[in-house]
Every structure is written in structure tokens, then in C-alpha cells.
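Hey team,

Sharing the Tyrosinase family protein run so nobody has to redo it. Sequence (273 residues) first:
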Amino acid sequence: MAVRKNQSALTADEKRRFVAALLALKRSGRYDEFVTTHNAFIVSDTDDGERTGHRSPSFLPWHRRFLLEFERALQSVDASVTLPYWDWTVDRSPRASLWAPDFLGGTGRERDGRVSDGPFAASTGNWPVNVRVDGRTFLRRSLGTAVRELPTRAEVDSVLAMPTYDMAPWNSGSDGFRNHLEGWRGVNLHNRVHVWVGGQMATGVSPNDPVFWLHHAYIDKLWAEWQRRHPGSGYLPAAGTPNVIDLRETMRPWHDTSPADLLDHTPHYTFDA
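Structure output:
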């Protein structure tokens, strides 16, 4: 059984193996396929049309499957690797360990956001940004610039306390747990973190930054925590809802998985705490 660990608890060898697997996927071209997929759904997911990966109830199961696919790709390189998660309620500073040169590298330089240290810096030649929204071919970050503070644990708990998964109109205007976690309403959890990191993380090609996977692994962990707190409250909507994915409808691009298939993460992985 795979165990997803807090990045702050990774050993030096676990960090090295995770980074090496990322770099191997990048060299093979497989990494960029994940970036392309995510960007395609960001572009197509709209409040008043079909929406699958974002702005919709399937935001959480879609990303759970997306992370599973990526984790399996990493494990095809190194079977010992699992996705770590970043608890941004604790590791809240640009000086936190995940931004160290031996792991993800730090923030970008002021004039253009270019990351200059760590294994994904442009100077290494190992991390060209090929799927992009502009002409810049290097990884960019501006930690804590566009928004100063990451979400707090009290804000997380306020969202976890919401008993209803989602509700009409099933988009970025909805009330309920999913939309407050995604961040279109209320205290803004998921979206705020993307903006706090900045650079490509604030765009549809956010998986260009490896921290995307750690962030979404934590979002997935929060969904699992919400499920434990509210065992009688499942995925909504169940059936007959235009433009969004009902409980047992399949989700593009896989065509073999519905939200119902992803409500329980435990057949695939557990969390360390």
C-alpha cells in the first residue's frame, strides 16, 4: 500500500528519489502530457457550460484520478516513490524546507520570476517549460507576492465543518464544501495557494511547477478528512444534472472512472497521519 507522506517528513533519500523520478518523466516527454491535459480542462471548464476538472462537483474526484495517474507514472520509474503532500497551514513561509535547493528550489528572481536554484532551475537545463501560456521557457515563481498569506488551519477547519458536499448551481457560485475548498467562495483555500506560489502555478499550465502535485495531494487529503468527518454526506449531484458529472457518470479523459469509483482512496494509498 502506497503511503503519501508530509513533505516535511521525507528523508534525504526519499526527496532524491522523488526528484529523480520527476526528471525522468520530464526527459521522456510524459511529464508534459500531464501539463497539456490539465491546461485543456482549465480552458474548457466554464461556469455556464460543460465543466469537469474545475468549477464543478467533479473537481475533487477528477484531480484524485489525475494524481493517481501521475503517481503511477512516477512509480514506473521508481516503484518506491509516492506523492508527498504540502501542508501549507504549517509550512507557510518561502523559507520552508520544501523550497530548499535539495528539493523544489525557491522563489524566482524579482524581474521575471525565474527560479534560479534547485533541480528545476533553468540553469540546470533539466526543466524546460514546453507547454506554456507565453514565450518564457523557464520555471517561474513569486512566493507570497500576489497574495501574502497562505490559508490557516482555522480556515481549513471552517471549510471541513461544512456538511454538504456541493449544491446548485454546481459551479463557482455554489455554496458547500467543494466550492469553498476549491476557493471560488469563502476563505479561498486551493485557489489562494496557486496564486501565493505564482508563476506557472497561477495559470492553467500549473503542473509545470512540481509543487502542483504536493499541493493537490494535500487538497486530496483534506477531502479524505472531510469524508471521515461527514460519513453520511456523499458526492452530489447524484443524477440528471446538465453540464456537470453526476455520481456515476464517467469523467473525461479516462472514460472508465466515475466519481463513485473514487470516493474511497484507501484501495490505492493512505496518508501518514
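Residues 182 and 190 are 5 Å apart (CA to CA).

Ping me if you want the raw files.
A.
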